[in-house]
Design brief:
Chain A is of the alpha/beta class and 278 residues long. Chain A has 9 helices and 12 strands. In chain A, strands 6-7-8-3-9-10 form a 6-stranded mixed β-sheet, with helices on both faces. A 4-stranded antiparallel β-sheet of chain A has the order 2-1-4-5, with helices on one face. A two-stranded antiparallel sheet of chain A has the order 11-12. Chain B is mainly alpha-helical and 351 residues long. The chains are: A alpha/beta (278), B mainly alpha (351).
Chain lengths: 278, 351
């Protein structure tokens, strides 16, 4: 639906021994990850495990201290950031729009990486924006101000902006935060539709059962490292969840999808006596 | 879809009729006030005669009064307004803070130090004159403004840029720089000190073509450079992470935007002294009038010009024959606006 004639980058995203440190603390510790084109991956893990930091490094919002992120085989930091923006879109966690911004104006910003400074409007851009609004179910809200919408509608508006960017890869940092369960499902159904249309998606999610239901691949992180990587069935097992979350739980298959559902029971051991400490 | 655009060849812009109306209306009123203002004074001239002089058909006496005395002052007022309006809009959007403006951040205070330093230290006991006056004072202001901006940025990196932090940093930096100015004034000769003192209130009194040229030069250099950069302001307004995701190289873009904004604010300080609050108020009025989520630059420029030229007319007439410094008038209008803004911002933070 968009012109990608001027981009030469192939949509393969890789992390090679990526480490990110905040002062003395290591947030991401020598992570290798290869995101296959067309996949839907969810990164899971407890608070502070480095999953958002890893996503931000993948989306070149921060530069790794060591190791490198490669897009189409090229270190992402060496590519012009505008060129990256035509291939890879990233939505940070709970982005804040300025007061009074309309949905249509927000979504139109998604066309920025494709525009020259002297050429700020085109009919083609307008069609992409309209199409993005339609696919996210936001057409009726185009002229509404963002601050007048519900949390779920607002999140869909932001996804519409990322969609208007016309990228092959979309990185989403906790797209369902602060949403009630119906709106969480709305957003994730939308993400699945985008994935089925060919977009590679990587998202950070908190809810394990929802992650299992929507993602093809789960990457579980703990203390900055990837500790499990595979299909939902392979990753959501009692030993792994014990190790990653200190969680004692039961795992039952979803009768409809066959995907695992995590039923939490309690802490695997008293707080402080962490199995994660090495 | 409500958004449409205009295209001429390869050049296109989104069509925003309300923005255009605001720009045209503010510009027309500013020019009308300018024409009236050119006729007001000891030697009163009707607006129709002012227009006649401007197209080259006036009497000699009228020409002398308008072209040599009043016109440069009015042009300085209009340009100062344009520069302050644009500078304020750029700083406010780049900082993503409704309270950020070059005057509140202490940047104009830095420009004042630079300019006063040239007036006081550069003079030989008398008044600064010649090349030092035309080039030295603006250059001193530009350097002072840039140094103050660098200092403010360094501190804000540590305090954070949200809420009231930037203006609190600005208060601190302004106080420091104000102290420097006072110190230099004490050291200065009586002539230099008197001149610097009038200038420090923000006065358009006795502005001549000599003050106009450096101002015009800096405005004519900065505005065209701002045009391509301004297309990034929409993305920057969505926050640093989103803007980076949209392909804005933040450090470079924000840096260039801020340098240009600081240069504009500083050169106005050189030309007319620190005229307070115009850079804060104009972008807000422009944003409200245009119904936009961020201040449009053209509307901010037009409203800035209108504010300064109208304040100058009031300053010249309200206590005539005594001339009130224009900075006193803009402060009387601007300070209550700042207070209103503080109350409103506080409410939003709570929400």
């Amino acid at each position: 639906m968009t012109d990608k004639t001027d981009t030469t980058v192939t949509p393969l995203l890789e992390a090679g021994a990526v480490s990110v440190r905040y002062g003395a603390a290591t947030a991401v510790d020598a992570v290798d990850l290869r995101i296959e084109p067309g996949s839907l991956t969810s990164i899971i893990g407890p608070n502070g495990c480095g999953k958002s930091t890893l996503l931000r490094a993948l989306g070149r919002l921060l530069a790794p201290d060591t190791g490198e992120v490669r897009l189409g085989g090229v270190p992402i930091g060496e590519l012009p950031t505008r060129e990256v923006a035509r291939v890879l879109g990233i939505l940070p966690q709970s982005p804040q729009a300025p007061d009074g911004l309309t949905v249509a104006d927000l979504v139109a910003r998604g066309r920025d990486p494709h525009r020259r400074w002297y050429d700020q409007w085109s009919r083609a851009d307008e069609q992409v924006v309209a199409e993005s609004l339609r696919r996210t179910g936001m057409s009726a809200f185009a002229d509404r101000q963002l601050d007048s919408l519900s949390g779920g509608q607002r999140q869909r508006a932001w996804i519409a902006m990322a969609l208007a960017q016309g990228t092959d890869i979309l990185l989403l940092d906790e797209p369902t935060t602060f949403l009630d369960v119906v709106h969480q499902i709305d957003v994730l159904e939308l993400v699945r539709e985008l994935h089925l249309s060919g977009i590679t998606v990587v998202m950070v999610l908190h809810d394990l059962s929802l992650a299992a239901r929507y993602a093809d691949r789960l990457v579980a992180m703990s203390a900055g490292r990837v500790v499990a990587d595979g299909t939902p069935g392979e990753v959501l097992t009692r030993p792994i969840l014990d190790r990653v979350f200190d969680l004692d739980c039961e795992i039952v298959p979803d009768a409809r999808t066959g995907r695992p559902i995590v039923v939490p029971i309690g802490r695997a051991r008293p707080e402080g006596a962490s199995a994660r400490a090495e | 879809m409500s958004v449409r655009g205009i295209r001429v060849g390869r050049i296109s812009v989104p069509w925003r009729p309300r923005h255009l109306v605001v720009v045209l209306a503010a510009s027309l009123v500013a020019l009308a006030v300018a024409v009236v203002s050119a006729g007001v004074g000891d030697f009163s001239i009707a607006p129709s005669r002012v227009l006649a002089v401007l197209v080259g058909g006036g009497e000699r006496r009228e020409e002398l009064v308008i072209l040599t005395i009043r016109l440069p002052r009015i042009l300085v007022a209009l340009l100062v307004g344009v520069a302050l309006g644009v500078s304020g809009a750029v700083v406010q959007t780049t900082a993503r803070n409704a309270l950020a403006s070059p005057d509140l951040l202490g940047i104009t205070a830095g420009a004042s130090v630079g300019a006063v330093a040239v007036i006081v230290l550069g003079g030989d006991g008398g008044t600064v004159s010649g090349l030092l006056d035309t080039v030295g004072v603006p250059a001193g202001a530009l350097v002072g403004g840039l140094l103050a901006a660098a200092l403010v940025l360094l501190i804000i990196r540590r305090t954070g840029s949200g809420g009231l932090q930037p203006i609190l940093v600005g208060v601190g930096v302004s106080a420091l720089l104000g102290g420097l100015v006072s110190w230099m004034m004490v050291e200065a000769s009586i002539n230099d000190a008197a001149r610097a003192n009038v200038w420090l209130t923000g006065s358009l009194n006795g502005r001549s073509w000599g003050e106009l040229w450096p101002l015009l030069l800096v405005v004519l250099v900065c505005l065209p450079l701002l045009v391509p950069l301004s297309t990034r302001l929409g993305a920057i307004d969505l926050g640093a992470d989103v803007a980076r995701g949209l392909g804005v190289s933040m450090l470079r873009t924000q840096g260039a935007l801020l340098v240009l904004a600081v240069l504009l604010a500083s050169v106005t300080t050189a030309a007319a002294g620190p005229i307070a609050f115009v850079a804060l108020v104009s972008p807000h009025l422009a944003r409200l009038a245009s119904g936009s989520s961020r201040p449009p630059l053209a509307a901010s420029a037009a409203i800035g010009a209108l504010l300064v030229v109208a304040s100058d007319l009031v300053a010249r007439t309200v206590l005539a024959p005594i001339q009130v410094p224009v900075g006193a008038i803009t402060a009387l209008v601007g300070a209550p606006f700042l207070l209103w803004l503080l109350i409103r911002t506080r409410r939003e933070v709570r929400r």
